[in-house]
């Protein structure tokens, strides 16, 4: 008998399912890839799944926003030899975590219009990486397909994929786009954000929102000074830096500096 | 059956987008309780938008859901532009239409072929189905890819578009790219017609059939279209979409993180492909009309399991309509960028669009500085949940009365009902403030 295929599980915690969709979006490369692995647990794509077996590779996307998410995550961690965090939500917290300073019961009142809700077991949204160790993290909102395929093929070959840690800004220069900061006086997170997207947004004449999460040790101070020196208002800077960057700021204890909305 | 209670539990519904389950309680042979449990966590996007600028709305609200990201984008921009008094230029309007068609092709191809068809052909997943139907699955994935290519060209990315701005687009497509899309759409028509033949040979069971009210937007022009500003019901009622709060009542239920919805009369209703065909199917033209007549020889019946075939008819329509829109865009001069100028002022606006799963409504209000004061999103799945539960109840009653076979067959049939709605659970738990 041929060597058995590695057992793979794909899981989504709370989120938009965009990273799982990007896997499905690998379209013509999906079936050959699926043939090289044994996908035993993928609720989004199959109605027959093994929820208990050991896994060689597990992919997890999304934030932990419920107790149930946390249980799922811990179970998957216990089952998996190699655990991969997919997407900015799983790695950094992403947009669901951008206002963790607002108590959840305030949000519940505003959204569900009821006080003292009991049936919502929602807790503040935190990245999966906050709770368990991961062997590999692949950010992106959503992940880039070519990066996922690289990860999958490397892991199947028993190797760890390596990604360059260049900023979006570097990829943007290589594409000879006009700089959103210099020429248009916009807050662009390109110099602080991990590349790999090919500078997608600035190539569409839109400033980088930082959706792929930060580089290692981005120089926030220098960037903010650069924006302010171009005459961009502090309010505008804070507004742009309170989205994908917010969970990162919070982690680094810089939250107070970037908040500008009214307290609730 | 004894008088003892019996529960049918499907803890985690497979082949749908997001996390949900089905819980049925039967006491003494009678169905006591039917719940669609939605346990996807809440992300409170609407509350999180408060205090942000309207320019940041699209980038945030598109993240409600990946499969529906283009739909949320177009609905949000329509609502914001209504509030600002911006009237889209013909090119911007057509490009957003093409983006919607691309998203519908992608989403319907995914649901019809990868999520629903395995049920009808007896497989657990599309990957298992690929072994016996390699050619069909390969084409289905190609069709889905074409939908994504359109979204990449117009929106800048297949999931969570970046090129879509209030007032226009950052970058316009080149004519040669539009020509390529047009010929790819044309090339997909013949193989898709083959699928219509395959579908016509499969008998759709009617164990979940039940009288249903259908709701859809009246197309903005003569023809089968996905945008409009009037909500219509299959009972002949009409309402301007800006007054949706008087028509659609949302309420919370204990077993679901997603709200449920009903008409003001208390009746539940269905939105989606089947509803659109029921209301506007007679406006279809060309091959879509042929496919409609082929798959619905007696017209649209009140059986949600036929929603998958309705999506197939819409796929045929999207291929034809997509070519027309490409043609129209090719008639305009090639340019780099198109943005309309506008003044920032306080406003409130509603935008609605027919997305793959049904009518999607966005509403925003903001102050003089453009800072969001309130946001509300009503998704198709939230509107369909209450109706899904009633269909499930009808199905359980009918299946228990007949000899349905094993427990697992019963569960599979109930899953088919829930899947037929193509529920998008991420969307339904986002959630709204009324």
Furnish the topology, listing elements before pairings.
The complex is a heterodimer of chains A (264) and B (434).
Chain A: E1 7-12, H1 18-24, H2 30-36, E2 38-41, E3 55-61, E4 63-66, H3 67-79, E5 80-86, H4 87-92, H5 104-112, E6 122-127, E7 136-138, H6 145-156, H7 168-174, H8 200-203, H9 220-229, H10 234-241, H11 246-251, H12 255-258
Parallel strand pairs in A: 1-2, 1-3, 3-5, 5-7
Antiparallel strand pairs in A: 4-6
Chain B: E1 5-10, E2 20-27, E3 30-38, H1 45-49, H2 57-61, H3 69-84, H4 90-121, H5 126-132, H6 134-155, E4 164-165, E5 168-169, H7 175-200, E6 215-217, E7 230-233, E8 238-240, H8 244-247, E9 248-251, E10 260-263, H9 273-280, H10 286-295, H11 307-330, E11 338-339, E12 347-355, E13 358-366, E14 372-378, H12 380-401, H13 407-420, H14 425-428
Antiparallel strand pairs in B: 1-2, 2-3, 4-5, 5-11, 6-7, 7-8, 9-10, 12-13, 13-14
Helix pairs in contact in B: 3-4, 4-5, 4-6, 4-11, 5-6, 6-7, 7-10, 7-11, 10-11, 12-13
Q: Which two chains touch over the largest interface? A: A-B, 68 and 70 residues
Q: CATH homologous superfamily of the largest domain in chain A, by name?
A: NADH:ubiquinone oxidoreductase-like, 20kDa subunit
Measured by DSSP, the beta-strand proportion of chain B falls in: 15-25%
What is the second-level CATH architecture of the largest domain in chain A? 3-Layer(aba) Sandwich
Which structural class matches the secondary elements of chain B? alpha+beta
Unreliable runs of chain A:
115-119
The total number of structural domains of chain B is 1
**Residue ranges of chain B: pLDDT <50 for 5 or more in a row?**
none
CATH class category name of chain B: Mainly Alpha
Oligomer: heterodimer
First and last CA, distance of chain B: 44 Å
* Count of alpha/pi helices of chain A: 12
* Largest sheet strand order of chain B: 1-2-3
What is the C-level CATH assignment of the largest domain in chain A? Alpha Beta
What gap, in angstroms, lies between the N and C termini of chain A?
63 Å
Count of helix runs of chain B: 14
State the order of secondary-structure elements of chain A, H for helix, E for strand.
EHHEEEHEHHEEHHHHHHH
CATH fold-level topology of the largest domain in chain A: Rossmann fold
């Amino acid at each position: 008998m041929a060597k058995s295929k590695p057992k793979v599980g794909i899981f989504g915690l709370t989120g938009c399912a965009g990273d799982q969709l990007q896997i499905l979006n690998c379209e013509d490369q999906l079936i050959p890839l699926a043939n090289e692995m044994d996908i035993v647990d993928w609720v989004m794509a199959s109605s027959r799944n093994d929820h208990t077996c050991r896994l060689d590779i597990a992919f997890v996307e999304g934030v932990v926003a419920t107790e149930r998410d946390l249980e799922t995550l811990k179970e998957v961690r216990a089952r998996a030899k190699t655990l991969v965090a997919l997407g900015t939500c799983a790695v950094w917290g992403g947009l669901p975590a951008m206002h963790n300073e607002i108590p959840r019961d305030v949000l519940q009142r505003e959204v569900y219009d009821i006080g003292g809700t009991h049936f919502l077991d929602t807790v503040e949204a935190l990245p999966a990486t906050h709770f368990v160790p991961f062997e590999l993290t692949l950010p992106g909102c959503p992940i880039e397909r070519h990066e996922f395929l690289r990860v999958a093929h490397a892991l199947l070959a028993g190797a760890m994929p390596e990604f360059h840690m260049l900023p979006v800004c570097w990829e943007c220069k290589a594409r000879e786009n006009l700089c959103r900061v210099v020429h248009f006086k916009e807050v662009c997170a390109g110099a602080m954000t991990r590349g790999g997207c090919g500078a997608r947004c600035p190539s569409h004449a839109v400033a980088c929102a930082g959706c792929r999460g930060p580089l290692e040790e981005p120089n926030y101070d220098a960037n903010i000074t650069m924006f302010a020196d171009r005459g961009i208002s502090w309010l505008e800077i804070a507004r742009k830096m309170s989205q994908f960057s917010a969970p990162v700021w919070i982690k680094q204890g810089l939250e107070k500096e970037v908040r500008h909305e009214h307290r609730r | 059956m004894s008088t003892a209670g019996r529960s049918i539990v499907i803890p985690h519904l497979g082949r749908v987008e997001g996390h949900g389950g089905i819980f049925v309680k039967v006491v003494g042979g009678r169905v006591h309780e039917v719940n669609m449990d939605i346990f996807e966590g809440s992300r409170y996007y609407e509350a999180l938008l408060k205090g942000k600028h309207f320019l940041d709305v699209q980038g945030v609200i598109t993240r409600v859901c990946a499969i529906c990201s283009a739909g949320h984008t177009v609905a949000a921009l329509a609502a914001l532009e209504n509030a600002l008094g911006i009237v889209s230029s013909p090119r911007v309007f057509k490009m957003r239409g093409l983006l919607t068609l691309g998203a519908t092709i992608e989403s319907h191809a995914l649901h019809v072929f990868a999520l629903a068809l395995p049920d009808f052909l007896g497989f657990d997943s599309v990957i298992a189905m690929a072994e016996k139907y390699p050619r069909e699955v390969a084409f289905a994935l190609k069709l889905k890819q074409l939908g994504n290519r359109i979204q990449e060209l117009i929106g800048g990315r297949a999931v969570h578009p970046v090129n879509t701005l209030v007032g226009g687009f950052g970058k316009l497509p080149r004519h040669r790219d539009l020509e390529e899309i047009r010929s790819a759409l044309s090339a997909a028509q013949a193989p898709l017609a083959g699928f219509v033949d395959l579908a016509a040979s499969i008998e759709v069971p009617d164990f979940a059939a039940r009288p249903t009210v259908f709701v859809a937007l009246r197309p903005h022009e003569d023809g089968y279209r996905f945008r409009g500003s009037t909500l219509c019901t299959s009972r002949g009622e009409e309402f301007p979409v800006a007054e949706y709060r008087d028509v659609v009542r949302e309420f919370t239920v204990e077993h679901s993180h997603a709200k449920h919805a009903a008409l003001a009369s208390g009746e539940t209703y269905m939105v989606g492909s089947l509803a659109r065909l029921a209301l506007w199917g007679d406006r279809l033209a060309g091959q879509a009309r042929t496919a409609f007549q082929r798959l619905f020889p007696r017209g649209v019946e009140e059986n949600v399991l036929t929603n998958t075939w309705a999506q197939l008819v819409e796929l045929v329509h999207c291929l034809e309509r997509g070519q027309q829109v490409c043609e129209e865009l090719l008639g305009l001069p090639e340019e780099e960028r198109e943005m309309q100028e506008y003044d920032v002022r306080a406003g409130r606006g509603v935008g609605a669009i027919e997305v793959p799963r049904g009518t999607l409504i966005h509403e925003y209000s903001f102050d003089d500085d453009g800072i969001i004061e309130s946001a509300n999103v009503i998704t198709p799945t939230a509107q369909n949940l209450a109706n899904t539960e009633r269909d499930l109840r009808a199905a359980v009653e009918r299946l228990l009365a007949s000899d349905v076979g094993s427990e697992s067959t019963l569960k599979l049939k109930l899953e088919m009902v829930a899947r037929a709605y193509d529920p998008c659970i991420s969307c339904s738990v986002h959630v709204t403030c009324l």
